[in-house]
Design brief:
- Strands 2-1-3-4-5-6 form a six-stranded parallel sheet, sandwiched between helices. A six-stranded parallel sheet has the order 9-8-7-10-11-12, sandwiched between helices.
- By secondary structure, the protein is an alpha/beta fold.
- The protein has 17 helices and twelve strands.
- It starts with a helix and ends in a 7-residue tail after the last helix.
């Protein structure tokens, strides 16, 4: 009796607990996850390849004998802006679909539950991401089986009881992971609750946020369903032992402002105080303003001035939370019109007003550019983690990749000087690929 549920994703139903509230939640949510993709504002059916309605009608999750609202817990880590953005996007989608019938809470497992020293992970991420060699070491430390096993055993020893106490206290109906480092530990805790404590456990699902490849920590066989953004990630998931029936290709979860894929370039330019007739190049370095954005911005401005003249285009440079970079760029002398921004919450409007995006290979930014049909030049990526995202863009002719600032500047001026080439790339992005949710 104890062994069987230990090795099943929903062993609790073996005890007939579907008569209780938790059992009804498990059955209802499991059925719903097979029937409609709850975790995206739009979706693609992984079997027939057709895009779904971007705003679902959201049929009620019938909990006739249950208690509303259904409690949804999103687990993540603030190691990179994309995980928090995905969590916020899912929260918006749940609220849109089910209104007051759901209560959604997002928790950084390592900061809010695990405590020190794990609470320093976000700080270490920002430091290590500045040095590609150091980042590659960390990436492979977590990817190679021996070192990955060692790290997961350390989490098991030091964090297991804290997470178990948190789950017992908060009693979520559904757990959604948007970060690879929370999956194995959480499923171990849930198995302990099922097998030893003999209690029902919430549904566990995963939302993968990498496009072209994915770290093995993303994939856990105990996950009821794993939402993935692309077919290449499906291949990776199966390689790491996932059942194909548990994989759903729905793209990435995007923020609410990107749900409407209708574009009004000139209207947005007027709203943002931009010239309606002057082309706009948007340069971004992610939420932390990473990459050699200063050197690249200078090269792009120089080539635009040389090839198209001082009024050939306007550069909008988004530095994110990097205040030092923002101050440096704001005090530079530029040969063309330049606007320097810090962290901004209306990036969808800036993308819609732009003709070209120069960016690092963050999956969220790439997906948002897909929605806005915005051609891309990718100039950097985190080794291992984001390399697949870059390759995905290049392989599908959705943009180019170069680390050479002069090549990037020359390409930007060439594309802006050739509207047909720019329109060609944009039209490819408009095709119904399984790209953005």
């Amino acid at each position: 009796i104890l062994v069987i549920p230990c090795w099943t994703g929903r062993g609790v139903v073996l005890w007939g607990s579907t008569n209780g509230i938790s059992g009804m939640v498990i059955e209802s949510v499991s059925y719903e996850s097979e029937r409609t993709p709850l975790l995206s504002s739009a979706q693609q059916d992984g079997e027939n390849g057709h895009l779904g309605d971007p705003l679902l009608d959201g049929e009620s999750l019938d909990r006739q004998n249950g208690v509303w609202p259904m409690k949804i817990l999103i687990l993540m880590s603030d190691t990179g802006g994309g995980h928090r953005a995905s969590a916020n996007a899912l929260t918006d989608a749940f609220k849109h679909l089910y209104k007051d019938n759901v209560s959604v809470t997002t928790v950084d497992l390592w900061v809010e539950i695990a405590g020190w020293p794990f609470s320093t992970y976000p700080w270490w991420y920002r430091l290590v991401a500045k040095y590609p060699v150091a980042w590659m070491f960390v990436y492979w430390y977590g990817k190679l089986p021996p070192t990955r096993w060692f790290q997961e055993q350390m989490w098991q020893v030091m964090v297991h009881d804290k997470l178990k106490a948190f789950l017992n206290e908060n009693q979520p109906d559904v757990i959604v992971s948007v970060h690879p480092m929370v999956n194995r530990l959480t499923n171990n805790v849930l198995r302990r609750i099922r097998c030893i404590d003999m209690k029902p456990t919430p549904i566990f699902s995963t939302v993968v946020t990498d496009y072209g490849d994915a770290h093995p920590m993303w994939f856990n066989k105990d996950s009821e369903v794993t939402y993935i953004p692309s077919e290449p990630v499906r291949t990776t998931a199966i390689k790491f032992g996932m059942e194909n029936s548990k994989l759903k290709v729905y793209g990435l979860a995007l923020r609410r402002e990107f749900w409407d894929d209708k574009t009004d370039k000139f209207g947005k330019r007027e709203k943002l105080g931009l010239s309606v007739s002057k082309p706009v190049i948007l340069l971004m370095g992610g939420g932390d303003g990473m990459g050699n954005l200063e050197l690249i911005s200078e090269a792009v401005a120089r080539h635009i001035n040389k090839e198209l003249g001082p009024n050939g285009a306007k550069l909008v440079i988004v530095c994110g939370s990097n205040r030092k970079l923002k101050s440096t760029l704001a005090h530079n002398t530029w040969p063309v019109e330049v606007e320097v921004l810090g962290f901004t919450d209306n990036i969808s409007e800036w993308m819609e007003a732009s003709d070209l995006l120069v960016t690092k290979a963050g999956p969220g930014t790439i997906a948002e550019a897909f929605v806005k049909s915005l051609p891309m030049i990718i100039y950097t990526y985190l080794p291992g983690q984001e390399e697949g995202n870059m390759q995905f863009v290049v392989d599908n002719d959705l943009g180019i990749y170069s680390t050479d600032a002069e090549v990037i500047g020359a390409t930007a001026s060439e594309w802006l000087g050739d509207p047909e080439r720019l329109a060609e790339v944009s039209s490819v992005i408009l095709q119904p690929y399984p790209l953005a949710a």
